[in-house]
Design brief:
Elements: H1 3-9, E1 19-23, E2 28-33, H2 44-58, E3 65-70, E4 74-76, H3 81-86, H4 92-106, E5 116-120, E6 123-125, H5 127-134, E7 137-141, E8 145-147, H6 161-169, H7 171-180, E9 183-185, H8 186-191, E10 197-199, H9 204-217, H10 220-230, H11 237-252, H12 255-265
Parallel strand pairs: 2-3, 3-5, 4-6, 5-7, 6-8, 7-10
Antiparallel strand pairs: 1-2, 8-9
Helix pairs in contact: 1-2, 5-6, 6-7, 10-11
Amino acid sequence: MNEQAHLDEQAAPNAWEPLRVEHRPNGVTVLTFDNPDKRNPMTGRLTAQWRRAMRSLRQDPDLRALVITGTGPAFCSGADLGELADRHGQPLSGTRAQLSDFYRTWLTVRDLSVPTVAAVNGHAVGAGLALALACDLRYAAAEAKLGAPFVQLGLHPGMATTALLAEAVGPSRARELLLTGRLISGARAATIGMVHEALPADQVLRAALDVADEIAAAAPLAVRLTKSGLAQGQPTVERALTWEGLAQPVTTTTDDFREGVQARRERRRPHFTGT
């Protein structure tokens, strides 16, 4: 960890923080990047707070879904270019270690057992785009700019962008976007599968919260096991049958399954408790 990041972690608890955390009563947590004047860059301070937030969320038994968004004109502008430039001339081994820690810290969002939703309220660039792609679901402002312009900065892509972008839009389209460094609109991103839907900027967070609320209202164990199955990548029918043959019987033993069936019979909304 560099000296600035260390100072960030030691900041006073009542100091301004670039990440706001909101825990809603239904088990949905909202993380909001709150450094709009700088377009929400991934500074050392924000990275330290993100690390703490992920650690806390992994230990939260009541968490059912996570929404990530930003304030101002950007979702996240990616790594702080000033901090990156400060590493110029440092030993390669040290830079490699620092960047690897940075990547892995931010990608811990993929380790959460609950669904994650990116509400891309504005521009998502470089590592900021990678973070959105690391979420399970993505909704974007139609006018937002999204892209990975690493090569336009003299950089190789980082934070697993080569894999995450190909996963979202396919290898051929990912090559085009990565090799040109081209930025596209949220509307265009929706047409190629980078995001699930493009909306007016003032509707993006509401759409993401509506989806998170739907997820939170479903049976927690069934949702978590479904996410685990999907995380195994594109399965063959045989692999899917093997996983589902293990996971579905587990859910048939739960109180939530009984509640789901009973609610369907009584034509009412089920109340799932996670048991």
